[in-house]
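Standup notes
- DV: blocked on the single-chain target, sequence here:
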Amino acid sequence: MDYKFFCFDGKVEFVYAMGDREVGESVKVGIYDRDFHKLPVLRDGDDDIGEVTKPINYEKMLSTAEHLAKGFPHVRVDLYSVSGKVLFGELTFYNASGYMKYTPDDFDIDIGNRFILD
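- DV (later): unblocked, structure below
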């Protein structure tokens, strides 16, 4: 399972939980709020992963993501939970180059409203 923490101004706002990935082919995705409650949002073209159990070390993952995101107006922090350990994947500054489509469409507006630049 791959967890992608979407951070704005150093704070996690929502999380992708991704699994059953066939690179370049398909992936199952669930979108959660920072408290790990599933949101009624889908990424267009991907299958819904269904309900995912919150990782036992989720709070550590949350604090790690926010620590790494400090100082950035927006960054996606990719983490893994493996045998109770938090492992780092990558930092992404332009998720899908801004071209991801969602259902409902207004989720894209919600994302944009969180991106504040001075």
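- Follow-up: Strands lie at 2-8, 11-22, 26-33, 42-43, 47-48, 74-82, 85-92, 102-103.
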